[in-house]
Amino acid sequence: MAGALTERDFVTKIERAGFTKIEILERTPMGVDDCTLYPLFTTDVLTLMRTLIPQDRQQTIGTAIVVRAQLDA
Amino acid sequence: MTATTRDLMRSAEIKEIVRSAYAAVALSSETVAQKLYSPEQLAQVPQVSIEGALGVANHLRHAQIDPGETVLDLGCGAGIDTIIAAFRAGAAGRVIALDFLPDMLERTRAAAAEIGLTNVELLEGDIEAIPLRDSSVDHIISNGVINLAPRKARVLAECARVLRPGGKLTVADLTVDEEELPPEIVTHPATWAG
After folding, report:
1. Is B111:B45 a contact under the CB 8 Å cutoff?
2. CB within 8 Å: B54 and A40
3. Which of B8, B9, B113, B173 is the 20 to 30 Å CA partner of B88?
4. How many domains does chain B have?
């Protein structure tokens, strides 16, 4: 999560790599509760998230997106 | 994320954090797979891959994988997407499962062997330097992996290099809002791997 880009930056990088017809097909909010499903998030970082992230942001700390693109022919 | 926070960890350090975290992670829960995949998809997949699912979405719902295609699964992990894609690519196609962790590749190998799939090839390597020839792949899939790479532009350039002209990219990944998370979280090693 710490290395994730904004959607705009991610799409820009895909475009710069030479891809076209870029479509965002899904956007799914990811909150602190979703992070608990992943064993990579340790208890201490989950506690930090619940403590430091304002309550109203905890439901969407990131967004899982699905992107489809095609390499220029 | 600002340049300052991004600069707090260098590329090699981030890679080592990610490698160590994934090497140590206990993969024994179906919760991620059950959340993301349909019962029909999961019915195709051995338990060893279901319990190792760590993706962020079900990009294969949108991936038009045609029989006979050569598919590259970028950061295959325990192999759930590799297995589903291998069924779609069929006997005339193949899925190259790329990961930098031998343990993950072993899970993918075991899953493919368990159900007799012969069109899965394992490849150990770094997604920033994909060990494949230029224009050798028809379709690249990836699920929650690119955000882990320190040099994302490099990863995408590598994708463009190994794809044939007109080749397809179908990826799921995590993005963040413009508003930053607190620095204590952004700099925590667990959030670079998670």
Report:
1. yes
2. yes
3. B173
4. 1
How far is it, in rounded angstroms, from Cα B170 to Cα A70? 9
The b/e string for B155-166 (b: 16+ C-beta within 10 A; e otherwise) is bbbbbbbbbeee
Tokens 């993005």 appear where?
B175
* Residue B146 DSSP one-character state: G
User: Is-contact A60 A31, C-beta < 8 A?
Assistant: yes
pLDDT digits (tens, 9 = 90+) for B14-65: 888 888 888 878 777 899 999 999 999 999 999 999 999 999 999 999 999 9
B10 in contact with A, Cβ within 8 Å:
no
Q: What ipTM does this complex have?
A: 0.94
Mean pLDDT of B147-166: 96
Q: What is the mean pLDDT of chain B?
A: 92
Longest dimension (CA), chain A: 49
Read off the CATH number of the domain in which B18 is found.
3.40.50.150
What does pTM read for this prediction? Answer: 0.92
Query: In percent, how much of chain B has pLDDT > 90?
Result: 76
The C-alpha angle A70, B171, B174, rounded to 5 degrees, equals 135
Q: For residues B156 and A17, give the distance between their C-alpha atoms in angstroms, rounded to a whole number.
A: 6
- Rounded CA-CA distance B20/B25 in Å is 9
Cβ–Cβ below 8 Å for A10 and B187 = no
